[in-house]
Specification:
mainly alpha; 4 helices; 0% strand; 115 residues
């Protein structure tokens, strides 16, 4: 139950940060770091999601759900006047989700009930 609360807390926090106006605080020199951040956050969120819900849903369904969430966030950002959707963000999110799923599968393979 604690992992579910942690996942939803992280998801809420990411949603909030994804939709607030950051034009005053973000330096354009951080664009590469932005993609690394997307990758890391989505890897972490997918591992949390899979640990919390893998007994109820398949790994691929959960990962696909997180992928759709990432696309929806980009679409919503594009509707604001201060954010824009970026293909690079979607790609970084996707690779993060994939690596998160692989980390989960490897951990699960080495220990049949790691979580």
């Amino acid at each position: 139950m604690l992992l579910k609360i942690l996942f939803w807390s992280v998801l809420f926090f990411v949603s909030f940060l994804s939709l607030v106006d950051t034009t005053q605080i973000v330096d354009t020199r951080l664009l590469l770091f932005d993609k690394v951040l997307h990758f890391g956050i989505y890897s972490f969120m997918n591992v949390l999601l899979l640990i919390a819900y893998n007994k109820n849903f398949s790994i691929w369904f959960l990962s696909l759900t997180l992928f759709v969430y990432g696309i929806l966030i980009e679409v919503i950002q594009n509707q604001t006047t201060y954010r824009a959707a970026e293909l690079g963000d979607i790609l970084a999110n996707s690779f993060g989700i994939l690596i998160g799923a692989l980390i989960f599968k490897i951990a699960y393979r080495f220990n049949k009930h790691p979580f």
